[in-house]
Design a protein that fits this description.
403 residues; Aminopeptidase; 2 domains; eleven-stranded mixed sheet
């Protein structure tokens, strides 16, 4: 429990579905960078569907701090039995513990399972409540003699609170597309307007790739929210599952998870389906965090889309690029979406004008010697990451006057 001096009552919730959804989502809406993936509907679906549960190595212990009847701070908290599904790799740290006869797992993780989307993680009504939440997390880890605490892909408020409590920062790179002329700040008028902002070689390459898909007889349709039919969702899962199985892995997410998304968060999903000869052959699924209806175009700066999943039943040259980048970008331009986040990893995204951005996570290790060693490692890694970012930025696909 928290120290007696704190004004907050601590609650640990082992079933995300039992959390007061209205209080949690209202607190989320007040944060610097809310995303759909931190809504209780999303987190509860991961648990109820059997996707993120103790049996798969994700034991939920969500932490909530109450001030009377008000939810003052909260975060998703998992005891992890492995490091899969996180996208911030600490396998070397776990191996080092094992080599010295120490247990690294279970560890404590503040994150959204299988979802490397930057955003608010430590939900709080103010800075004092957020600081209290970090202290409570550290006390909880110490009481259970856990090896470590990790806060993944947090926003600037989260990271400031973690830094104040001496957590170590770790930086990575993702690739995001902005619906914005770099020189004027204005959104693109259409896909051709977007292409005009690129260097000639990148513009030519994209057109060639799109022509290959069209020449193969492939067309696309999209559906959003309630317009995504049950048959569409079934087809999507066939594609999603096949992608994992082709790489020798079982999919992280179960059919029941996507059934819950269709039921509880349909408005946050857009599905692009590739068809040939009247039959669906591939698809990609993106998420959106606000309603990009025409009436909301003026609020485009508040609308973000997130690339999430894709799969194909037939092989067509360049189909992946069309389904995962060009169709979503075209849709984002048409619907006034300000940013499309392409997800973790993949320098190839730069050729499609998804530019590098830095993401940050925070880490605490209980063992002093290992904490010192990791701090030295992170300092070296940070220098390399800064150089990597500079190299990527020097390869910008934007025309010189747009850069």
């Amino acid at each position: 429990m928290l120290q007696a001096a704190t004004p907050f009552r601590q609650q640990i919730a082992t079933d995300p579905g039992a959390i007061d959804a209205r209080a949690w989502n209202a607190l989320l809406a007040r944060q610097h960078a809310p995303t759909p993936f931190m809504r209780t509907e999303y987190l509860a679906a991961l648990h109820a569907s059997g996707s993120a549960v103790p049996e798969t190595g994700w034991a939920p212990h969500f932490m909530l701090l109450w001030d009377g009847a008000e939810l003052a701070a909260a975060c998703p908290l998992y005891l992890k039995a492995h490091s899969y599904g996180e996208y911030v790799f600490d396998w070397a740290w776990a191996n080092a513990y094992a080599e010295h006869g120490l247990r690294y797992y279970p560890k404590a993780l503040v994150a959204v399972p299988f979802t490397p989307v930057p955003g608010s993680r430590l939900l709080a009504r103010d800075g004092a409540a957020r600081a209290a939440l970090v202290r409570a997390l550290l006390a909880w880890c110490a009481q259970r003699k856990l090896s470590s605490l990790h806060v993944l892909f947090g926003d600037e408020d989260d990271l400031a609170a973690c830094e104040s409590s001496q957590l170590m920062s770790r930086h990575q790179v993702q690739f995001h597309w902005k619906n914005q002329h770099a020189s004027t700040g204005q959104p693109f008028g259409d896909f051709d307007d977007f292409l005009a902002a690129l260097t000639q070689d990148k513009r030519k390459k994209i057109r060639q790739e799109r022509r290959k898909v069209a020449a193969a007889g492939v067309t696309f349709r999209w559906a959003r929210g309630a317009d995504i039919t049950p048959a569409d969702w079934v087809f999507f899962y066939r594609c999603y599952e096949r992608t994992y199985l082709e790489h020798g892995n079982d999919p992280y997410l179960t059919p029941a998870f996507f059934q819950a998304m269709a039921r509880d968060m349909a408005e946050h999903w857009v599905l692009f389906i590739a068809e040939r000869a009247g039959q669906p052959i591939a698809c990609s699924l993106i998420a959106v965090d606000a309603d990009p209806a025409p009436a909301n175009v003026s609020k485009g700066s508040e609308i973000v889309a997130y690339g999430r999943y894709w799969g194909a039943l037939q092989r067509v040259d360049c189909l992946h690029f069309e389904a995962c980048y060009y169709q979503p970008i075209d849709w984002c331009i048409a619907h006034g979406v300000a940013r499309f986040e392409g997800g973790a990893q993949g320098e190839h995204k730069m050729a499609r004008a998804l530019l590098p951005v830095q993401t940050t996570s925070a880490h605490w290790l209980a063992h002093p010697a290992f904490a010192d060693a990791v701090a030295r490692f992170l300092a070296r890694e940070d220098q390399g990451m800064a150089q990597y970012l500079e190299q990527l930025q020097a390869r910008s696909p934007l025309r010189h006057e747009q850069a």
